[in-house]
Amino acid sequence: MKPGWPGLLLLPALACAGPAVRPAAGPDYRVHVDAGLRAVTVERCFTGDVPAAWMPGVPAGAVLPRILRVRAGAPDAPLALDDDVLPLAGHVRAGDCVRLVFDAAVLARASRQGGAADALVLWPALWLWRSTQPGPDWQATLRFDLPPGVVASAPWPADAAGTRTLGVGALRTPSRVAIGRFPLWIEDVAGARIEVAAVGGAPDRATLGPWVRGAAEGVAAVYGGFPRPHAQVVLMGQGGRGVSFGEAQRGGGPSVTLWVGGASTPEDLRTDWTLSHELFHLGMPPIDRRDAWLSEGVTQYYTHLCQARAGVVSPLEAWADLHDGLERGRASDGGWSVEAESDALRQRHAYWWVYWGGAAWALELDVALRRRGDALDRVLRHWQRHPCCDGTLWRGDALLAEADAFLGTPLAAPLKARLLTQPGFPDVDATRTALGLRTRGRQVLRLDDAAPDAATRRALTARP
Ligand SMILES: [Zn+2]
Fold first, then answer.
1. Which residue from 129, 160, 330, 418 has the least number of CB within 10 angstroms?
2. CA 461, 289, 338 angle in degrees (round to 5)?
3. 138-158 pLDDT, tens per residue?
4. Distance between Cα 282 and ligand 1 center (Å)
């Protein structure tokens, strides 16, 4: 420390003014915010080839920032768009930087990711500008330059120095970046580094931590370890208790977001299955929306079993939730097959029918496999080899063909043809009875250990 060194006194003012021109080496993108969270500055310096033009991921991003060319030894020069595209050829040369300066509140509003007093929740498509035709091998590095006390959460893996690596999936698929003053911590669970961001008045870490760990451990019990080396968990606070909604995203890295009541108790979260469900999605290959019966069905089937495998709920609680869901699914009959409703899910919204119809298929397939000394877990571990987040989408039938080739016998595809392509809900009564689920209506009264498949039932919820 050198008392009286004037540079030290100037530092805070400089930090608010935006990043200085920097040497060529370093991350491709630098994302800077000021201490008041008033402006977001995204800077890209071009060290080699300069692309002919630049653009945001969605047209809405084009009108948002002030755009500057930053060149050493020259005043900053404004750059103008041409039809929502930023021409760089003739304006920017190697060694120059392009700086996008956003009003933070405007950018957060345009992001439509929900507001939070302590965080800017941002949609990268608006500000992660890229060349007009990024190839499949596109890759970039990114760093957040943040004032003291301000943190950033993103789905992109970071090295020890905080430099994030982005593949082309970051440009193709939505994701969520949160920047602000909120609790952010790492849960090391089952071989994975899970970055937890609790924004907007979510419950405290002591309440959320065990919930996150329990859900991740349950998923890991199926995949033999958490299925991805890292993941982002964004927990958005809201009024009340419990979880109202959750979603999984794959924009360059595995991520889930859940809306959690700030007054939620540990018991509210223990019995909530949403986090288990969303985290389970991350282990599956990305699946086309038309085949929600597969992505949601398999996930819904495993959601409650995972909770039991982690010891978060009892086997009876898990089977009760599974049975109740199957009954709700069966009661929601709109006259179409599960496959047809899945294809029309965005028009007809037959969620219970599709999710639980797919879950019924998964239950039937898993029990059939267990009777052969195999398990659906093994298929999940096989599928898990597909990249999580590069933007590729799989059709359900392709994955079923792959599963049957892996199993060495046609099971998955014929079962789908039998259960899901005709009107009516898949009949799982015989399987439930064989497993020893003694039910009345939507309730499970008890689990019968004398049932022929009772050992399979116990194995399905056993802790590893
Ligand atoms: Zn889901």
1. 160
2. 65
3. 999 999 999 999 999 999 999
4. 10
Tokens found for residue 14: 């400089």
CA 61 to chain centre: 22
Report CA 188 to chain centroid distance, whole Å: 17
Record the pTM.
0.92
> Is the distance from CB of 114 to CB of 121 less than 8 angstroms?
yes
Distance (Å) from CA 226 to ligand 1 centroid = 17
Residue 104 to residue 58: CA distance in whole angstroms? 18
The size of the chain, in residues, is 464
Mean pLDDT over all residues of the chain?
A: 93
Q: Specify burial of residue 60 (Cβ count, 10 A radius: 0-12, 13-18, 19+).
A: middle
Mean pLDDT in residue range 395-401: 98
Q: What is the Cβ-side half-sphere exposure of residue 166, based on CA atoms within 13 angstroms?
A: 25
pLDDT for the residue 133: 87
**Cα(198)–Cα(119) distance, integer angstroms:** 10
259 alpha carbon to ligand 1 midpoint, in Å? 14
Cα 280 to ligand 1 centroid, rounded to whole Å: 8
Distance 182 CA to ligand 1 centre (A): 27
Pairing of strands 39-45, 119-122: unpaired
- Expressed in angstroms and rounded, the spacing between residue 299 Cα and the centre of ligand 1 is 6
Residue 277 Cα to ligand 1 middle (Å) = 6
| pLDDT at residue 461 greater than cutoff 90 | yes
Cα 462 to middle of ligand 1, angstroms: 23
Half-sphere exposure of 430 (CA within 13 A, CB side): 5
Number of Cβ within 10 Å of residue 128's Cβ equals 25
- How much distance in Å is there from the Cα of 249 to the middle of ligand 1? 11
State which amino acid sits at residue 210. P
Q: How far apart are CA 253 and CA 136, in angstroms?
A: 16
Q: Structure tokens of 223? A: 């995949």
Place of tokens 């930023």: 86
